[in-house]
Amino acid sequence: MLAFIARRLLETIPVLAGISVVVFLFLHLIPGDPAMTLLGERANPQNLQRVREQLGLDQPLYVQYGRYVLSLLHGDLGRSIRTNRPVLEEARGRFPATIELSAAALLIAIVVGAGGGVLSASWRGSWVDHLARVVSLVGISIPIFWLGLVLIFLFAVWLQWLPPDGRLDAGLRYTPLTGFVFLDALLLRRADLATNGLRHLALPALTLSTVPMAIIARMTRSAMLEVLRADYVRTARAKGLSTWRVTLHHALKNAALPVVTIVGLEVGFLLSGAVLTETIFSWPGIGRWIFESILNRDYPVVQGMTLVVALIFVAVNFLVDVAYAALDPRIRLR
Amino acid sequence: MSKGAPKLRRRATLGLGPAALLAMHAAARLPLAYARGEGGTFVFGRGGDSVKLDPAVVTDGESFRVTDQIFETLVQFNGSTTDIKPGLARSWDISPDGLVYTFTLREGVRFHDGTPFDADAVKWNFDRWGNPDNPYRLPADTFEYYEDVAGFTDTIAGVEVVDPLTVRITLSAPQAPFLLNLALPAFAFASPTAMMADLENAYKNPVGTGPFRFVEWVPGDHITLDKNTSYWGEPANLDRVIVRVIPDNTARFLAVRSGSIDMMEGVNPEDLAAARRDRTLSVIFRPSLNIGYINMNLQMKPFDDVRVRQAIAAAINRPAIVESLYAGIGTVASQLIPPSLLGWNPEVKGPQYDPAKAKQLLTDAGYGSGFTTDFWYMPVSRPYFPNPQAIAEAIAADLAKVGIKTNLKTEDWATYLTDRNQLKFPMWMLGWTGDNGDPDNFLFTFFGQFKPGIDNSWDNPQVRALLQQAQRTADSGERDAIYRQVNAIIDQEMPRIPIAHTTPPLIARSYVKGYVANPTSTEYYSSIWLDK
User: Which residues contact B514 (CB under 8 A, 6 or more apart)?
Assistant: First the structure.
């Protein structure tokens, strides 16, 4: 197991190095630079040159890259060109928002998706199955943008049950301890933080969960169907075990493998930031931030966050492999 | 949305006990609104976050929107005009040669940290802005407004303290819009004590003299300001201001409709009509200080021929486009500067819609059978072109009718700006929003220089000389005459085709009173009160 972990960690290094070079080159080779986006319509050669000098963009590429790698090795991701805040500090401020949103969306997606998939498979061909499959198709097809706006209109404007956007009411006095609203609510013993946070989280989490939910549902259903046909399931039933015990304990555990892969991929995608959902709901996460930074050509942010996101995917992949080993003893022996 | 009985009926049909639902609804509604204090909390929604709260080193409107409440300038724009009125300076003298400005400052003004605002503070700030060797400049600081927009680097020779309440600024050459430039948000004064104590974090700990003081900034989310109870002037009505980021225009509009914000800027043209119909909302128009135009590369055929340019101008049905695609916020432009500016020429009528004349001009120029060209439009909505794609399509349709076939193209905004500076496009849409209400800010920017790296392809030495002359004259009568002449020449030569000026709309809840919109976008919340 230790060797496995060590090997995986070592493999990460060339991956990250390669990514950093590619991202750096792409960013610097596309037209437009931070000086241009800072100056906008008023850009002219004089002020462009002056701003570029001040930002260190007039140096040759290899010098800029060299400086960047040097600071990377010191754990310094540089400063945002636009705001001059350290990239790490900005990321630390925004990550909790993305994590909370992703966790909530994933929870909904797994519970409803996997639950729906199991029911679908267990009562294959019934109205439950048909309904679940239609909902799943709709979930994958619906444009998130549109769904988000419709939900806001329905619940915030028309019914006035929920707030339309943001993570907390701006008038709420809150000095973050950990940055995680629900954790802070616990630590600071503030129920109002938790309820307010939940009300704001509901719609974006629901919106963001639709696609993963649909995918997980379909995957669970097909995996369950395959497993339910297997001999050992027939044997278990023949032995007299209740349907639910058979379904949940024996079948689901085996069907879980492909579902875990999917969930792992979804976690990666969710954590790298849900740009559309974050934009519609003004959710202060990393997705929207990275997207805007690309448009603003904010090199340090894009370079740094691409590495961070890559790291996330690597870590999640690793955890998925570990989960495999936990779920399926046959894998452990390898 | 109407409240009361109809809603109850709708929900009752869901099958749940109406009483239970009523209770649920009432409970759900209670904490929805933001905590509103006695004098009221005003929540403004905008599309992007401020970059930094240090007005001297930024150029974006979202930073200025907030710093305008915290910091103050020597002089200010008066109400919804670009006339100048006293700010932190209560009076001033200008020497006859226009080179020496002596300002008398208000007494008893203090920064939010309690330190005094005086001539030393003024000089300290000016030195920080203008002196490259000043120790209180961070490496990444750029003083764009000082150096470029106002041109102070080339103009201000010295700033001296005459006495604690008198400052003398000496110019190396007269600058007619000098007072207008001093009213720009970038020249607001920060507390030297606060900056010297912590320069690194000054951009997020602003300390000014204004009617609001800074409370907190949650990046990407909101900025909170509280009323400055020790303000030197008339204190603000509001107790608190919250400026929130809501990136999507439609989501922001839904937020103002739901009442979770009190006011917003940046509405989609389609939503503007709904806003006008909604009795809970009011629409406030910012007086125009912009122009949307079509630019051409005069070094490429066939745009080098003035007849072709005039033909394109005559082929476009500008009144119809403004009528249908500007949601009521546009006026057809007769020239490249808005009517409120000095030098606007009433004799210049601008291009008239005349497709027959267009065809004739094209034939005269040798393009009787028309020609084909790429026509570029921007991918983002700009104040001067609210709906660029639709407008581009309408223009293309008009041009097709006289035989000019256009290939519509667009690309990412940063790339667009880079490419137009390198004159990569044969024909493209762009515009300009004025900074200080002076015609030089428009016309010199467009045509004052002819060299590589800027999007001016019109080599007209006469116009350049006129523009330079107008910069150096302090006499407004003389400047008016010069700019009128320049606008007449532009109308004959048509290097850029003016399309429209717009009055950017702001949407507010109808209980928001006292908002004064200014053409330069420098707008103060101290006059706002909430009628509820």
Answer: B237, B527, B528, B529
Band of the pLDDT at B1, cuts 50, 70, 90?
very low
- How does DSSP classify residue B116? B
**DSSP element (H, E) containing B198:** none
- Report chain A's terminal Cα–Cα distance, integer Å: 10
Q: With bands split at pLDDT 50, 70 and 90, how would you rate the model's confidence at B335?
A: very high
pLDDT(A53) > 90: no
Question: Picking from A59-68, B361-370, B504-513, which range would have the lowest pLDDT averaged per residue?
Answer: A59-68
Question: What is the C-alpha to C-alpha distance for residues B172 and B123, in angstroms, rounded to an integer?
Answer: 17
The CA distance from A285 to the nearest CA of chain B, in Å, is 8
- Distance (Å, whole) CA B342 – CA B439: 6
From CA B117, how far away is CA A7, in angstroms rounded? 64
User: What angle in degrees, to the nearest 10, is found between the helix axes of A87-108 and A299-327?
Assistant: 40
Report yes or no: A235 at the B interface, CB cutoff 8 Å. Answer: no
Nearest chain A residue to B441, by CA: A42
- Nearest CB among A30, A40, A160 relative to B29 is that of A160
* Mean pLDDT on A200-210: 95
pTM for this structure?
A: 0.84
Task: Tokens for B339, please give them.
Answer: 């009517």
pLDDT value at residue B339: 93
Type of residue found at B32: L
Report the distance separating Cα B412 and Cα B378, nearest Å: 8
DSSP H or E run through A185: helix A181-187
pLDDT in tens, A120-145: 888 888 898 999 899 899 988 999 89
Domain A96-327 has CATH 1.10.3720.10: yes
Torsion angle, alpha carbons of B262, B267, B272, B276, to 10: 10
Nearest CA to B64 out of B50, B83, B78 is that of B50
